[in-house]
Structure formats: structure tokens, C-alpha cells
Design goal:
With 477 residues, this protein is mainly alpha-helical. It has 20 helices and four strands. The longest helix is centred in the N-terminal third of the chain and has 37 residues, at 105-141.
């Protein structure tokens, strides 16, 4: 490791080796060579003077990239594609004259970018499915565990721990739908020439439009794509990068929402993210158990959501058939979004696989607020016992305010039930009131909703993607 230069935290601390490989030079330049082979094969099949011997020679050297020769040549010509054409030609002397025939730089550059993004999206999809699988186990285990609900982070009607997890899952399900849509819509640029008119190929094929029309579909088929974008300038529309990163930004938002909830719950001591035996929470306060991984999810998610602006602005500033102000930005914004999302999903896998729930703390907080939640039921019971609904409502309001002041101003326990029992207007004993304090009476359909959501939504997703299951994340720090 070089300690005298900047190293990206995305590669050193956050992203997996698998995602890093997808954006590696080996993947990039190996794909360039596969595209050159595909182009030569298609041109051969369409009747150009390219021999099978030349194609075989190209295939023989797809993976043994001579980087040093390419780097040395780039210092001379200042052009990365032509440097690799030259280096490939050194290894393939019989075929060097037909490498990149009729193509422009974007033939390898842009088609490779699409291929790389497709592979990266597939990895994102795999990890996203596994996050859903972990959350499904958690939601099922705690589907009937009552917990205090919050609106505006103020105590509200009870829900269950499992039901809350389904809210996180639904966000990720929407993201998975978007990833599937984007994967299904990606096409190659094909080989369109310098301004998208395919003029060089029309010349190569002696004006035969039929052969020119067959060129792109044949390249797409060889590279495993359903087709190519029907029209373009020199590049594929940078709108495609915007669409891809918007999908990643959606995952980031969902992950941040879940991680923020976990951070708040850890503050309440109700739920904790995994905390390893030798982990240090604070250099000064030895007792602390900080939600460091959830905080990191939020931090990286914020980075991705802001990064989404890059391809959007780039897309809007492309002049006519192309300009080069996309290149430097694109080299940073697209890979880093994927590397960061990869790190986020690994953290999500790690956190959801080891969430610790503290039912006693949850119950204590819920019971301290439940008398307020139960007032509607108490009011109905009082009416059944002969009371006036409007009078009961006003009296409960007054007693609730009194009990609230006692809790907030004096720091004492909630005595609303005692106040109601002592009020003859209600004609209810403390024992009768305490019978209404079963939390399960106030969680509505939450357990059923969890079961139904898992059965109708999540299990079909997991069954459909069962070959993707089994991913376990390794967290570097």
C-alpha cells in the first residue's frame, strides 16, 4: 500500500471486492477487447475482408492485457482508446489492421459503460434481495411485539416491532422494482460513428443500408443485450446515467430512513444494531454503544443522493452530437455512486442480520403512555355504564392534561388511571381500568398486516430470486 498518496475510502473501507472488480481496469479494458472482437466478427459475417484467423488471434489475447505498452503509448498520443488499439495490435500482428475498423472511441467507451453498469446493477439487486430476506425474518419474529408508535416522534397509537420493519421493507421493494425496470431497459450504444450517422460503415459496406441496419442488432446479440438505442449522437444519451443513478439514490433514501429509525430506537434503548465484543463506542466514554454502522449508512446515503445531481446536470449540458465535459465527471460520479451503494447495502445486511430487540424496555415505555392511548376505549366503557359521551370526552381531556403535567413537571409516573377511577362520573374501578391495559388491544391489525405483507409481497420476491440468496456482508471497519 502507498501511504504517500490519497486513497479512496470507497475502495479501502466501504465497497466490496466484487463491486470494485466491476469498475476495475481489468473489467474495463477486457470489455473493450470483447467489443472489438464482436465488431470484427459482425463485420466478417457481413462480408468485409476480415478473416477467421484474425478473429481467433484477437480472441486469444482478450484477457492478457499489456498495460505497460498501452500506458507508454498514451504518453505519446494522449488518447486512451488509440493507445489500447496499438497495444492490442502488438499482441495481434495479423489482426492489428482491422481492430476498431469503422468505429469511434465511444464504441468501446460507451458500450463498456453500459455493460459495467448492468453488472453493477445486478450485484446491487442481489444484495437488495438479501436485505429484504433478513428484514423478513426480523419482521416475522416480532410481528406481534407491541411497541409505542410515533408520529412527529411524539407518542402515538401502538404498533408492533415487526410492522415497523415492514415499512422499511416496502421502501426497499419499491427500489427493487426500479432496479428491475432499469436493468430491463438498458441497451447498448452500438456502433454509430462520430456523430451517430454511421457514415463510416455506410462507406465500408459500399452504400449497403441493409448491412448497416444489421450491424447494431448483431453487436447487441453478441454482447448479450436486447438491442441498441435506435438513435444517438456520438454517445448514448447521458439521460441513461441519470436514470441509473436515480435508482441508486432511491436505495440510499430507503437505507437512510431505516438507519435513522434504528439510530433513534437505539437512543431509546429499544433496539440496537450489532455491537461486537471488542468494539469501542467512544474513545472517552467507555460505556457508550454508538449506532456507528447505522450512522455510516446515513453518511454514505447522503453522499449518493447528492451524487445523483451529477449525471442530471451532465445530461442537460451535452451540446449537439457530443461534448467532452461529461468524461471527467462521469469517471467519478457513476463508479463512486455504485461503490457507495455497495457499501451501504453491505452495512444494511450486517445491521439487519444482528438487530437486538429489548422487549422489557419497549414494554415499559409503552405502558407509561398507554393510559393516554386507552382513553377512547375507557370513554366508550363509561358511556356503556351510563355516562354522557360529550361530558366523558371533556372530563378525560382535563384529567389527561393533569396527568401529563405530573409526568412532565414533577417527573412522576402517569396516574391517569387513578384519576379516572377516583372520578365518580366514570363509574369505573381501578381494577376495571387496569384490565383495559393489555397492549395487544391497541395494535389493531398489525400482526395480520405483517403476515399478509410477507406472504403476498416478500415471499414471492424471495422465491423468484432464490438463486440470489445467501449473501453475507463483510464489514471492513
Amino acid at each position: 500500500m502507498n501511504n504517500d498518496r490519497y486513497v479512496s475510502p470507497l475502495s479501502e473501507r466501504y465497497a466490496s471486492r466484487e463491486m470494485q472488480y466491476i469498475f476495475s481496469p481489468d473489467m474495463k479494458f477486457g470489455t473493450w477487447r470483447k467489443l472489438w472482437v464482436a465488431l470484427a466478427e459482425v463485420e466478417h459475417e457481413l462480408g468485409l475482408q476480415i478473416t477467421q484467423e484474425q478473429i481467433d488471434e484477437l480472441k486469444e489475447h482478450v484477457n492478457d492485457i499489456n498495460y505497460e505498452e498501452a500506458k507508454a503509448r498514451e504518453k505519446v498520443v494522449r488518447h486512451d482508446v488509440m493507445s489500447h488499439v496499438y497495444a492490442y495490435g502488438l499482441q495481434c500482428p495479423k489482426a492489428k489492421g482491422i481492430i476498431h475498423l469503422g468505429a469511434t472511441s465511444c464504441y468501446v467507451g460507451d458500450n463498456t459503460d453500459i455493460i459495467v453498469m448492468r453488472e453493477a446493477l445486478r450485484l446491487v439487486r442481489r444484495k437488495l434481495v438479501n436485505v429484504l430476506a433478513e428484514l423478513a425474518k426480523f419482521a416475522d419474529e416480532y410481528k406481534a411485539q407491541p411497541t409505542l408508535g410515533f408520529t412527529h416522534f411524539q407518542p402515538a397509537q401502538p404498533t408492533t416491532v415487526g410492522k415497523r420493519a415492514t415499512l422499511w421493507m416496502q421502501e426497499f421493494c419499491l427500489d427493487l422494482e426500479e432496479i428491475e425496470h432499469v436493468l430491463g431497459s438498458l441497451k447498448l450504444l452500438g456502433s454509430k460513428g462520430t456523430t451517430g450517422t454511421q457514415a463510416s460503415f455506410l462507406e465500408l459496406f459500399d452504400g449497403d443500408l441493409d448491412k448497416v441496419d444489421r450491424l447494431d442488432p448483431m453487436i447487441a446479440e453478441k454482447m448479450g443485450f436486447p438491442g441498441c438505442y435506435p438513435v444517438s449522437g456520438q454517445t448514448y444519451s447521458r439521460k441513461v446515467d441519470t436514470i441509473v443513478l436515480n435508482a441508486l439514490g432511491g436505495i440510499a433514501a430507503s437505507a437512510m430512513k431505516m438507519a435513522t429509525d434504528i439510530r433513534l430506537l437505539q437512543h431509546l434503548k429499544e433496539v440496537e444494531e450489532p455491537f461486537e465484543k471488542s468494539q469501542i463506542g467512544s474513545s472517552a466514554m467507555a460505556y457508550k454503544r454508538n449506532p456507528m454502522r447505522s450512522e455510516r449508512i446515513c453518511s454514505l446515503s447522503r453522499y449518493v443522493m447528492i451524487d445523483v445531481l451529477n449525471p442530471a446536470v451532465t445530461s442537460g449540458t451535452q451540446w449537439f452530437e457530443r461534448t467532452l465535459d461529461d468524461s471527467a465527471n462521469k469517471r467519478l460520479s457513476v463508479p463512486e455512486a455504485f461503490l457507495a451503494i455497495d457499501g451501504i447495502l453491505d452495512l444494511c445486511l450486517n445491521v439487519t442480520d444482528g438487530l437486538k430487540v429489548y422487549p422489557k424496555v419497549i414494554e415499559k415505555r409503552l405502558m407509561s403512555e398507554l393510559p393516554f392511548m386507552a382513553t377512547e376505549n375507557i370513554m366508550m366503557d363509561a358511556v356503556k355504564a351510563g355516562g354522557d359521551r360529550q361530558e366523558m370526552h371533556e372530563r378525560i381531556r382535563e384529567l389527561s392534561m393533569q396527568a401529563g403535567r405530573r409526568v412532565k413537571e414533577e417527573g412522576l409516573d402517569n396516574n391517569l388511571l387513578e384519576l379516572i377511577a377516583a372520578d365518580p362520573a366514570f363509574n369505573l374501578s381501578l381494577e376495571e381500568l387496569q384490565k383495559t391495559m393489555d397492549p395487544k388491544r391497541y395494535i389493531g391489525c398489525a400482526p395480520h398486516q405483517v403476515e399478509k405483507f410477507l406472504a403476498d409481497v416478500i415471499r414471492p420476491i424471495l422465491e423468484q430470486n432464490k438463486e440470489l440468496l445467501g449473501v453475507k456482508a463483510e464489514i471492513t471497519v
